[in-house]
Structure formats: structure tokens, C-alpha cells
Design a protein that fits this description.
Helices cover about 45% and strands about 0% of the residues. By secondary structure, it is an all-alpha fold. The longest helix has about 35 residues, at about 10-45.
């Protein structure tokens, strides 16, 4: 069996390690400076010259002041508020609260509008005979069972 007793070439390994480290540091510097140069060039190209910006601002100001209603007057009118025709207000629709026609529920008391009458006839509300297509009727006592059938559901 052959045995190799030669010493490792430490000087060569150390030299290569130093060359690799210097190369990596140099590449880092070169790539970072290239990226900075290119990004600053792209930003500079996108910026408008100062004279063009001032000319555009003056043209915008002139068009705002010569409009049918000057900008300052329109802003003052917006501060006064909206007319009632476009003022947002909560919905009075209780459709989601009362549910399905064939199994109606009472709307919660806090959501019932005092301006609107409760639907008590036509098969939709309680206390009246139902005119549903299947001949079913609504409960005579809406408080006791809140519109639920007397029999449990059949599964």
C-alpha cells in the first residue's frame, strides 16, 4: 500500500484564497456602482426639466381660473354640503331581515322604520291568511314561534 507523505501546498491554497477574496470584493464594488449609475440615469431621464414643469403649472392654473366655475368657487361649494337628493342615508329595505316568502320572519324591532307600515296582508306578514301557491298559511301567533312550523323538519 502506498502512502503519500508530502506536505499540503499551503502557500498555493492561501494565494488562491486571497485572489478569490480580492476578486469578490472588486466584483461587488463594480456591480453596485454599475447599478447605481444605471438607476440614477433612468431617474434623471424620467424627470421633466424645471421650465416645462413651470409652464405646465401655469397652463393648469389658467385653465382652472377660466372654467365655467372657478376652482376656488367649486371648492367653497363642496364645503357647504350635499343636497338631500344625493346625501347618503341608511336603507329602509327589510328584505334581508324578513327572509323567504314561504317562511317569513319578523324584522327586529330596532330595524323597523317607524315611517313604513309593516306588511300584514297578502300572505307575507303575520295575522292574515296566506295566499301562497302551496296553500300553506303563516302562524296566527307570530310571537310564540316567530313563523316556524309546529312540526320539526323531516330529514
Amino acid at each position: 500500500m502506498a502512502v503519500d507523505n508530502t506536505q499540503p501546498r499551503v502557500r498555493l491554497i492561501a494565494t488562491l484564497a486571497v485572489i478569490v477574496i480580492i476578486t469578490l470584493v472588486g466584483l461587488d464594488f463594480v456591480l453596485k456602482s454599475y447599478f447605481t449609475f444605471m438607476s440614477e440615469g433612468a431617474q434623471y431621464e424620467k424627470m421633466a426639466p424645471r421650465a416645462d414643469v413651470l409652464a405646465q403649472t401655469a397652463a393648469d392654473s389658467a385653465s382652472f381660473s377660466s372654467a365655467r366655475m372657478p376652482m376656488l368657487q367649486a371648492a367653497a361649494q363642496l364645503k357647504l354640503g350635499r343636497s338631500e337628493a344625493i346625501e347618503p342615508r341608511p336603507s329602509d329595505d327589510l328584505g334581508a331581515m324578513t327572509g323567504w316568502n314561504k317562511l317569513p320572519k319578523l324584522a327586529p324591532v330596532s330595524f323597523v322604520s317607524r315611517d313604513l307600515p309593516l306588511p300584514l296582508s297578502g300572505g307575507v306578514g303575520y295575522g292574515a291568511e296566506s295566499s301562497l301557491a302551496d296553500g300553506g298559511s303563516v302562524s296566527k301567533n307570530p310571537v310564540s314561534d316567530a313563523g316556524r312550523d309546529a312540526r320539526p323538519p323531516q330529514h
